[in-house]
Each structure stands twice: as structure tokens, then as C-alpha cells.
Design goal:
The structure is a homodimer of 384-residue chains.
Chain A: H1 13-21, E1 26-27, H2 39-46, H3 48-57, H4 60-74, E2 88-90, H5 93-104, E3 110-115, H6 120-127, E4 131-136, H7 137-142, H8 147-150, E5 155-159, H9 171-184, E6 187-191, H10 205-212, E7 216-221, E8 234-238, H11 246-253, H12 259-294, E9 302-303, E10 312-316, H13 322-330, E11 334-335, E12 337-338, E13 353-357, H14 362-378
Parallel strand pairs in A: 1-11, 3-4, 3-5, 5-6, 6-7
Antiparallel strand pairs in A: 2-8, 7-8, 9-10, 10-13, 12-13
Chain lengths: 384, 384
Amino acid sequence: MNRILPTVSAENLTQFETLALATSSMNLADGHARQQLTAAQSKIVAELPSMWAEAAMRPAPEIEQEATESFFGMLGQHSHPFAAGRTLSCYSSSLAMEILARSLVTTSDAVALIHPTFDNIPDILRGVGLRLVPVEEEQAHDEDLPAELLEQVGCVFITTPNNPTGRVMSEARLRRLAEQCAEYGVVLALDTCFRGFDPDAQFDHYAVLDASGCRWVVIEDTGKLWPTLELKIGWLVPSANVDLPIEKIHSDILLGTSPLILLMVKRLADDGADGGLAELQRTIADHRALLRAEFADVPGISFVDEHARVSVERLHVGSRLGMDVWSAVRSQNLYVLPCQKFHWARPHEGERMLRLALSRNPSTLLAGARVLRSALLDAPELQG
Amino acid sequence: MNRILPTVSAENLTQFETLALATSSMNLADGHARQQLTAAQSKIVAELPSMWAEAAMRPAPEIEQEATESFFGMLGQHSHPFAAGRTLSCYSSSLAMEILARSLVTTSDAVALIHPTFDNIPDILRGVGLRLVPVEEEQAHDEDLPAELLEQVGCVFITTPNNPTGRVMSEARLRRLAEQCAEYGVVLALDTCFRGFDPDAQFDHYAVLDASGCRWVVIEDTGKLWPTLELKIGWLVPSANVDLPIEKIHSDILLGTSPLILLMVKRLADDGADGGLAELQRTIADHRALLRAEFADVPGISFVDEHARVSVERLHVGSRLGMDVWSAVRSQNLYVLPCQKFHWARPHEGERMLRLALSRNPSTLLAGARVLRSALLDAPELQG
């Protein structure tokens, strides 16, 4: 059990998150769902053995269809292209990302990518050999993209709701961006993995994209919503006109996902549509309020994403350095995420922020918040 | 449910396998385990809800360590480097393959790859931009590799036991190959995903590799052994001296695998070590005997891999074309795998062979064998 690194040698956000897993620590680092199961969810887990028998008996594509319809339906994504074979299920959204990146690089050498965003997106895109051009979040949301940008890239990649900011691209803005991508022959790729948390992101994205005529790809994810021990599905959904070798590369890496996980996703999504998702959104809102209250009287601290509804929350630590605060609370067994690596083009822009996970039990969240509060209030070297 | 392609447009073996999933057909196509659970395995599945509670409670790295020790131990792979953080768990062995390929291409432009082998290996390697040089199976097993080959590649990649042939690299031969790779500074990569089926492959590979001083990577897999509905772990195990960005790329794609799957793997491996693996080997031997008996009197048919113990079996269909036989039995709802794509460098060498899966219930296997037997005996156009 030597995975506790003696010094900080994390190269990316995931390696920072791994540090939090390696000990019996307070883990507010990763954005995976780690809250308790609700009563309805516990009932589904209790039925896993009978779901196993069902999954072993029935044709896998039939189960996959049901899971797709329930999950996409819960998200308000009613026009999914399952029947056309274009909802490709993957073990995770990051694997969907890898397949997309490998597909893009066959026809393109550059991607315009939202800034900031979770660093495994730029790292995977760069890892396959793509050059990245940053698109500031404000720019993506507020104005047309410049022609000189669209002329030099094969794809525009937007995370909505964004991780870590929670910012959601509106239907009107998505429509205009898609029109621009259609005009320039550029693929519009969306990562919507956090959209279950925000009703504003639960409109029919594919209908908007199709209406524009642009080539598009969307990555969907069950993995952020429910505390299912990393049993999850990422979907990679390309448009009919995408003209990338996505299906081939998908089939190089997998024959299919687990019918047991798909059955479980169907059941969880049905419960979600029946009130479970609204309950989750209330839980996250409660946790966000709890966290904000805990820091209300700490000088120099602010919550930068006022309207965020996603399951992570950014804290600006004033004139302190996020890494100093990270080190201080780590010595008390609390793990959070320093934000510089979200700002993949200009890390210094994130160096005074931390990201905290909200998808935890309230007791864990409160205990972690109190450790962080004490560190911010007490340690003289952390004074803002 | 439009995934039944009207004509054969499969680009790779996995797409051929997908055809078999899309219907309520007799599926002898893919090599995934689809036999019934044994009584001991059923007991483990029945305990999934309590294993869920356990996995949610305990630190994930502790569960991962137990799963690694049980699984590697069952395979006779006693010297695993878990404590050094070098047993990287992945959602599947193909994902481990993708991560390895992405790592190799950062320092190398060519790989020497065993021929034949399952086509997703060459497709993934080529997909990241690597050039492939075939190493004939006989050559890899019988003689030193030529200097001119080793001088032009960054990696030698061997599947042992091989898929589809079942051929196992002996300890003595592995030692010599590793010495050659050490001498030329070439990474020796092994895919040992089928080694649970063959006791001859259950020696301590890592000890042999380490003793040679070569840089090495091994891909291990739980996915072929047990009928666990695609719940599986692939492990990517690099040597300490590998000098490739494997850990970084792994962390770009995943934070970790499911602790529930890891707990299940531990339980299945403990049962395997306690007699379950020997029982599985007997089952596969029985199925192989059943299949061979069914075709004993069919003219022009032969089983080419006499000593194979893996869960797939190749059938030479004489002067017939495998694709013709494939089409004939497909019309009767039986799916098998035509072999030309295993021969990734010279497909014609596989065009008179089919691969049949043995990890099925005997009734499915027998029903499929009888359809195939009739097709081979009756259809005049298929006469050898």
C-alpha cells in the first residue's frame, strides 16, 4: 500500500484525486458521487442478484435500448439516435473522450477547447497529437467565435455545464455556435456529463445541433450522478453526418458495456425521472448552502460560481495560494482539489482557487469544511 | 433495434461479434465467457448487495490490493508489483492495450507484433500511428528474432496464450526473448489475457522478465474466464525501468476501477484457486471434445490447434471459404467468427478457417455445432 506519495508529484487533477483515495482521509477531491444511496436507490442495489439473472437472459441490445431511453429521457434528451446505432456506450465518459480524440486526429490537427475545464480533456486531446486553442468560457457564452479561430481548427469542444464552473450553455447560444460550426465545417463536440444536476441543461441538445446542419458529437455520462461504485456508462453520440471513424475505433476498444450496469442505469434513471433527480438536485443545493454558510465569516474567501448547480463548488482563497492551503489541510487528512490545472492554458489563473466536491454525505462535507475553515482562519501563513 | 446490418459490413472481428449480439441468435462468435455460473459463482453473485455495502465502506486501494493478490496468485503470478504502484487496473484489457499503445508511440514508431492475433491489437497500435512488423508465431516460439527486426522496432508484442491459436510461450523461450529485448533496448509487451485457461502459462512471467533486465509490460485480464456480464478488470503492469508515460496516460483516462468489481474478482479468484479454475479448465476441455466429436466424420474438416486449451477453437473448413460458411450458417441464426482478420498482415492465410467460442453452455455449443455440421455436409456449394 505504497500509493501515498511522500511528496506532491501529481501531474494532473486525477493524480491529485488519487492521493485522496489512498488513505482513510476526508475526500472532497474528486467529483465522483460518494453520497449515501437514497432509499429508492438502496432498493435497486438490493435487487442486483435478480437483475443479474435478467441481464444474463435477455439480448444485450434490448437492455441497452431501455437504458438509453430511460437515461436520455430523464435528461430531456428525447431525440436520441439509438435506432440509428449512434448511441455508443462506453465504460466511462473519459473512454468516450479518448475515442473521440483518436477519431478527430485522423482528419484534423487542432481543436478549440473551452478554458478552463477539467484537465483530462486537454491532456487526452494533446496526447493523441492535437494542438489546442483556448476558447475563454465568457467568449464561448457571450459572443460569436472569431473566423480566424474557426478556420484553424477541426473541432470546437465545449463542456456544458462546465467543470469546475458549472456554467451552462443556453439553447439560444448553442444554436448560434452550431450555426457557426456548420458554416465553417467544424465539428461541435459537447461534454454534458454534469447536465443531470442542472435543469437549464436539460433541453434537447441533439435537436438544436441537427437543425443547424453542423457535424456534432456529444458525450453523456451516468457517472457523476449516483453513488454506484464506478459502475457507470459514458455515451458517445455522433451526428449522422459526422464523417469520423468513431464507430470503428469504438469497436477496436470494446464489444459492449455491461448489461448489468445498463439495467441498473435504467432503474436509476426511471427513479430519477420519478422524482429522484429533483431530490438529488435539492441535496446538492443543500450541500452548497451548508458549505457557503460555513465560510461566510472567513475573511478574503469567496464562492466564485454564484449560479452553479453542479456537484462541485469553487472557493476563491483570496491572496492565499491554493497549493499552500491544499498542503495545510492535507496534513490534517483533508483532500481538496487545487484549481490551477483546470486552467490548462494559463495555470496561474487558477492558483488562488480550490474545488470542493458536494456529492458526499453531509457529515463528511461538514467535517472537511471545518478543517478547511480552521486552516484558513488560524494559520498565519495562509492569511489573505 | 436497427443494429442488424442488412449486408455484411463488418470492418473488424468485434463488428462481426456485434452481429451475433444483435439478435436472439446462437452466438459462438465472441470469446467472452457466456457459460452458466457454477454453484460457487452463483453464491458470490447472490452476495452482491452485501459486497456493495462492503465496497462502499472500505478504502478502495485496500480492496484493489486484495483483488490483485488473489487474481495474480491464482495465475501463479506471485511476484506482482502492487506495492510499487505498478499494477494499473483498467475497465478492460483493451483499454489497457489502448493506454500501452498511446505510451509506446511517444518514444517509438514501430512495433513487432505476433501474427496471427486478434485484430484489435494491430488496429489499436496502428490507430495511434505505429507501424507494424509481423512476427510469425512459429518464429517467435522457435528461434531468436533477427537483429534487423529488433533494430527497427521499439517494442515486441506477443500474445500468450495466443488468440486464436492457443499457443503458449514457454518459460525458457520467454527468457531468451526477454534477453534479446534487453540487448536491443526494446520493450517486451505480453498479452496474457487467456492464461487462466492453460496451466502451462501460469508461471511467474514477471520474475523471468525482471531477471533479463529488459523493459517490459504485461496485460492481464479477468474478462475471459468468468461469465460476469462484462464486469471485469484488465491490468496493465509495467516494469520499474519501462520509461514510458503509462501512469500519466492511465490517469488521464481513469481515476480507478469499481471496488465492487474488484471485490467480486477477489471472491471469484479465491474460488478459482480453491478448485474453480481447474473446474473451468475441465469444462473447456469437455466442450472442446464435444465439438471435435461432432465434426469427426465431416470430410475435409480439421481442428488445427491440437494442443490448445484456451476457450476458443479453430476449425479449418478445407477448400471452402470461411466467409461462405459464415454466410450459410448466419442464415440459420448461428454466428461464428471468420478468421481472415486474425491474420492482420496477410488475411488470405485465415480465409479457410473459423473460430468457435467454447465458453458457452453445452446445449448452445451443441446446437450451434449441429447447424454448422449440417451446413458443411449438406450445402453443395460448401463441399470441400
